[in-house]
């Protein structure tokens, strides 16, 4: 099992950068640099230059941007064990999300009947890390479930973490095979934040992402670095709350970018 794939979401930061760029808060150069740091050289799915995908996004969302609508222009869709992606069953986007290790981005467009689904495919091109973006044009509207508010997502993650900690304490767990476990957790939390978020990210979203990164780092430290899987039931139950917090943070950021 790839633990990092369950608790880390480079697509979260990608969504924030794309949203900030669409709303004019970040330059194209800054966007491309950040996405390159996240997933290597960027390409449109058909092998075209990444600029072609950016032009497509700009053309299909221009009316929403001009109207400064507060409804999120882009949603991060994550799924995991026991939780299907929150997309219309049978749609091309739902099928793509089920087969994507990272999730997908759903983009509202000027035509509600034809939303866009962006699917990242991590690969190598001529031996260099790269991301190929598949763009799906849906033929019908996608009714997305409303993400939690940042406050509700934070509260749910905190409560679940506290409950898991209590269960672990009740088991009498105690081990310290790492020279400095706190340093390991801190180092991993820093990794999850790389290459960081756009300067225009709202504070509440950034704080929520930092909390999810911290919980993710703890899970990876115990299961991967320490190699102790006796606590898996208590730790794995946090995955769902991590996913929901990341989706909530992205939705909130998109709304705030419109201000």
Automatic annotation (TrEMBL):
- Give the protein's recorded name: Uncharacterized protein
Annotated organism of origin: Corynebacterium incognita
């Amino acid at each position: 099992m790839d633990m990092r794939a369950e608790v880390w979401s480079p697509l979260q930061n990608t969504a924030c950068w794309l949203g900030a760029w669409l709303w004019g808060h970040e330059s194209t150069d800054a966007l491309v640099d950040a996405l390159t740091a996240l997933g290597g050289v960027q390409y449109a799915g058909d092998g075209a230059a990444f600029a072609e995908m950016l032009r497509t996004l700009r053309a299909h969302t221009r009316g929403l941007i001009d109207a400064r609508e507060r409804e999120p222009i882009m949603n991060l869709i994550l799924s995991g064990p026991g939780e299907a992606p929150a997309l219309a069953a049978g749609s091309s986007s739902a099928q793509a999300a089920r087969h994507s290790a990272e999730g997908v981005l759903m983009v509202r467009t000027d035509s509600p009947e034809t939303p866009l689904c962006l699917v990242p495919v991590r690969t190598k091109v001529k031996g260099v890390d790269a991301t190929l973006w598949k763009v799906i044009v849906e033929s019908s509207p996608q009714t997305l479930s409303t993400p939690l508010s940042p406050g509700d997502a934070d509260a749910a993650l905190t409560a679940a973490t506290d409950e898991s900690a209590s269960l672990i304490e009740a088991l009498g767990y105690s081990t310290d095979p790492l020279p400095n476990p706190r340093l390991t957790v801190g180092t991993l939390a820093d990794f999850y934040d790389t290459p960081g978020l756009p300067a225009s990210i709202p504070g509440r979203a950034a704080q929520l992402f930092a909390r999810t990164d911290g919980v993710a780092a703890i899970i990876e430290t115990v299961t991967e670095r320490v190699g102790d899987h006796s606590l898996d039931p208590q730790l794995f139950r946090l995955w769902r709350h991590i996913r929901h917090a990341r989706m909530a943070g992205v939705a909130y950021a998109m709304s705030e970018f419109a201000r």
